[in-house]
């Protein structure tokens, strides 16, 4: 970023400690991309950031899964998912399935997307994730994208910071820059353009 030459990024696992002490003690300035449904500690400020379409990944050799899934086929499939560190709420996907009288069988819970995608590549399971991440995994691993049931919700991602630092000029700049990026990304996606991975 030529307009912020001193900026640096660190990727951390989003744990309850990061969301509370990490933000409050300014060990972490901002959590980017957390699902809006996530349980949050007091004192944090959550800003809507970006809605992301969900898709499924299946191994290229997985002939039990077609190019699209209805809600029943989705529930019947084996699943790989990201572990919810807090364990406080069911996922949006599980809540959606319950509304339709369905459940799913999760065979593997993983702490990061790449590990989960590798499990999918080696098994007959599927994984549900944001489209832009799935597009990258299709280029890296022997997996393919599968259209999920239309009933699945959109992933609503947020920006989270501690209220004590909400007026910090650097965080205001970072928030505005990320919101502008999300707007540019939405425009490109709606016009059919995609940035190279």
Automatic annotation (TrEMBL):
Transmembrane segments: none annotated. Pfam families: LysR_substrate (PF03466). Residues 5-180 form the LysR substrate-binding domain. Signal peptide: none annotated. Keywords: DNA-binding, Transcription, Transcription regulation. The keyword Transcription applies. PANTHER family: HTH-TYPE TRANSCRIPTIONAL REGULATOR LEUO-RELATED, TRANSCRIPTIONAL REGULATORY PROTEIN. Belongs to the LysR transcriptional regulatory family. This is LysR substrate-binding domain-containing protein.
């Amino acid at each position: 970023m030529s307009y912020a030459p001193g900026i640096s990024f660190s990727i951390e696992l989003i744990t309850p400690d990061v969301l509370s002490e990490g933000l409050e003690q300014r060990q972490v300035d901002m959590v980017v991309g957390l699902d809006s449904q996530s349980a949050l500690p007091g004192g944090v400020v959550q800003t809507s950031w970006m809605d992301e379409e969900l898709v499924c990944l299946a191994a290229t050799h997985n002939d039990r899964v077609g190019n699209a899934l209805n809600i029943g086929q989705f529930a019947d499939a084996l699943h790989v998912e990201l572990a919810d560190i807090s364990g406080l709420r069911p996922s949006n996907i599980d809540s959606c399935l319950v509304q339709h009288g369905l459940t799913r069988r999760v065979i593997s819970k993983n702490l990061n997307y790449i590990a989960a995608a590798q499990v999918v590549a080696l098994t007959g399971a599927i994984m549900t994730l944001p489209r832009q991440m799935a597009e990258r995994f299709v280029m890296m691993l022997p997996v393919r994208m599968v259209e999920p049931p239309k009933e699945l919700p959109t992933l609503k991602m947020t920006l989270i910071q501690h209220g004590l630092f909400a007026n910090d000029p650097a965080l205001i700049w970072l928030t505005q820059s990320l919101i502008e990026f999300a707007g540019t990304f939405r425009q490109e996606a709606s016009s059919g353009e995609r940035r190279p991975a």
